[in-house]
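Session log. Operator J.P. requested a structure for one protein chain; no other inputs attached. Running the standard single-chain path with token output.
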Amino acid sequence: MGYGWDVLLPLLLGWNLLVFLLMGIDKRQAVRNRRRIRETTLLACAFALGAVGLLAGMAVFRHKTKKAIFLLLGPVALLFDLLLLVGLDALLRQWQG
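Structure written below.
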């Protein structure tokens, strides 16, 4: 793990845990017919490096698994996040020396 990842990795893990929990909260709210988290918010979180949390939440809570937009954009967000992380790693390596 290079320079910067010792800080970024725990942040990424924490963020994805939060996105995972948001999926669980939204599922619980749906079951109880209460106010929900907007789909655009959940998807934005996925594209902001939270795709792993979103996809894990979909699987564990069986939530949004029939929504075409989530089935399509969940994996796209994961690919986007991976490409973003590769670019970030390249920047960190360049700054390192």
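Operator note: The radius of gyration is 15 Å.
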